Input
Amino acid sequence: MDLDLVVDEALKQRLMDEGMDDLLATHFAHLFIRDPIVIFGEDLKELDLSKTDHFENLQSTNWQHMRFKPPPPDNSIGWRVEFRPMEIQITDFENAAFSIFIVLVTRAILSFDLNFYIPIPRTTENMETAHIRDAVLDQKFYFRNDPFPTRPVRPATNGHASGTTTPNPPSRPPTPTGPVEDEYSLMTIDEIINGQSSPSSSTTTPETPTRPTAFPGLIPLVESYLSSLNVDVQTRCDIARYLDLIRKRANGTYWTAAKWIRHFVRGRGEYKGDSVVSEEVTYDLVKAVQEITREEGREGGVGWEMFSVERERGMTRKRKGESACG
Output
């Protein structure tokens, strides 16, 4: 619990009086410390207690680190936690890569009962750190050391899980060992995405009986999940292209879009280094981005740094649609 969390105490008490537990009441009482961003006039004409329109209007525009979504009326899909992992990227390929990656992460979490809990104040610090220039390479972020469960792992679903229903596994038991501060540590983005080096000579997977000595990395976890399914070769090759982009963005092999934009603006003679971006520079940037959306840096073109190791290799990079498996 965040000791500095601001809540509407009167609302929290009202929620608890109606049967909500303390933690959940604290979460929703925190949401109601601000007004909603938008209000629909038609919803103000009549208060229909059989609907949740007013609540969802506030819930959808006023939340912090996560969106904790209650079951909608007349629906059995259950409680949900919504991922909000990124801003839109420049190209369709990048958007597809990150979208598919986050879906696969959710499947790995459900399949292996992974636990990525850290205290919410640490997520606030992570967000502040993320605002630092080149944080993806130069900064460290709080992340859970050991995501694996202490109980036996549920068997894989053979790829038939749709993700549209809420699974009903046994409730996760409370962590019984040591202070919570021992459960997480500072890691680089490379370590979070690609994994930490481990003194062990063997690769740790959720099926192995030994506990990991280093954080395994989100991509290795996803690959372990994929290996537990009957995925055809072509699909696995397509997924490998997407994971390779994320892997190399995380370790610095490929530039991020933020780095490329900063480099582009600084390289314009009109820019004076005073954070004032002129209309001319803005126009040139938009035109360059348009070219990147079409060509994705192929043939050593604009933005190749985001997709290729070096300009020469960018000129021979596989064309869009070709398999990354050769």
